[in-house]
Amino acid sequence: MSLENLRVAIVGAGPAGIYAGNLLADAVEAAGGSVTIDLIESLPAPYGLIRYGVAPDHPRIKGIVDSLHEMLDSGRIRFLGNVEVGRDVTIDDLKARYHAVILATGAIRDAALDIPGIDKRGSHGAADFVAWFDGHPDVPRTWPLDAQQVAVIGNGNVALDVARMLAKHARDLVTTEIPDNVLEGLEASAVTDVHVFGRRGPADIKFTPIELRELGEVPDVDIVLDDADFEGVDPAAAPTNQLKVMLRTLQSWRGKEPTGASRRLHLHFWHAPVEVLGDERVEGVRFERTRSVDGAVVGTGEFVDYPLQAVYRAVGYYGTRVEGAPFDEARGVIPNEAGRVLESPGLYATGWIKRGPVGLIGHTKSDAMETVGHLVDDARAGLLPAPAEGDLVALLEEREVEFTTWDGWRALDAHERHLGETHRHARQRVKLVPREDQVEIARAGALAVS
Q1: Least crowded by CB within 10 Å, which of 107, 289, 408, 412?
Q2: What is the average pLDDT value for the chain, to the nearest integer?
Q3: What is the reported pTM?
């Protein structure tokens, strides 16, 4: 077939899905063709992990949201929110209405940490905590912050986000867009000490310099490091400038005297978690000290117990299965070759569900470009099955699905900004949390526009 009247559905309205839609529109238009793109999202609002997976005190995220907003506001992509594939529609429903379907559902679940006691009360997944403080509509409104000594297991950016949010005072977050229920929960937090544990040493950290720097800028929080973790560490010998900067930052913190801050953030290296201690709830964590042998991390046989009352595992994310699509349980991805889903003509994948939960925004763009390139090649080669059914909206209306639209999101966005303007603290927005409230405002706003 040619690129005339191509119809494509994209499942997932996070950065991966939006970039894929924008790149697809560009590619087809550049080739002189035409394409209809529907962006299907299970939540009432767009932006995925940018809205519900990033700490609210990251101001640089606003620039990414602005860019994604421009792509959707162009009118080249139709947004259909509050529609879950597997609940409201099936993959077969989509295949019947589109030449191709791109899955961009990402990874929102926590990867497992398989050690004894990890399921005790007081043990949490980092993704669940992030979803709570970001106001995700499908998680509980309250969060247990009754522990004084807290562990965060992991040495990546998510671990630092979780640690920073646990250590930070609520008063330093009042100007962000966190919902009121989250602000109230943080105001009542009993946390005094947050311990971040990594299996590897300082020279193997997976942070980014900006994340690490932000950690040192948290008011009324002392950062505590153990000199023993830094034996043999030479920032000048680091293989990259980025790592040199981070090691110098860590070295500068080692030399600081405690200020008497009300909270402390401890960074531990060379610690592998072995067991969560306690009867019914977390009472501590046992670690084995580790060392590097020819680049591999091995145990030393030395064990140390830390008295802790809560544990957050931040050891990675796990892909979100889409009912009706193949899924690799071991890797948590949809099996594919460069974006083409195996043995499923017309089905594609992009983003974390394609390659696993690694990489930043730049990787997401290049990843989407690869997938879109193969889709366009397949369309030109006549390899895409022709759709037989009509418009998806007619099916949603027939099934009485309360879907939201781009006009609806604009109404919800305006409502959240108004909540911020009228809040007791000056805020850019206040997120509306309940799904039913989001849907009601979005659908009423869309009707007002139409």
Answers
A1: 289
A2: 93
A3: 0.93
Give a yes or no: residue 409 inside a domain. Answer: no
User: Is 103 in contact with 91 (CB distance < 8 Å)?
Assistant: no
CB atoms < 10 A from the CB of 207, how many?
Answer: 21
Domain that holds residue 93: 6-108+319-403
- Taking only Cα atoms into account, the Rg of the chain, rounded to an integer number of angstroms, comes to 23
Helix axes 157-167, 126-133, angle to 10 degrees: 50
Kindly state whether residue 429 falls inside one of the protein's structural domains: no
Domain count, the chain: 2
262 and 347 in a single domain? The answer is no
The alpha helices in 99-235, defined as continuous H runs, are 126-133, 157-167, 180-187, 209-215
Measured CA angle at 409 (ends 404, 412), to 5 deg: 110
Instruction: Judge if 252 and 351 occupy the same domain.
Output: no
List, for residues 247-284, the tens digit of each pLDDT value: 999 999 998 888 999 999 999 999 999 999 999 999 99
Rounded CA gap, 314 and 316, in Å?
6
Contact 224, 250 (CB under 8 A): no
pLDDT at 448 over 70: no
